[in-house]
Amino acid sequence: MTPKNFIRKSFLLKEIDFYLVTDSGLSKKGTLPDVREVVESVCRIVQHREKNKSTKEMVEEASEIKRT
Prior knowledge:
The protein is of the alpha+beta class.
């Protein structure tokens, strides 16, 4: 990568909003640790999706995510 390309990519990363869609089936650490990690770094938007959890479980987890 040339210095010019590196500078351009660095600039673009600062301008892009990252969007996380959760999927506990793909997570090794769990949804909450994943969300905490990305929110602390660059992500501002999180979509909480779970196909295999009850509504109660989703609401509880979403409440935890909101506090993150």
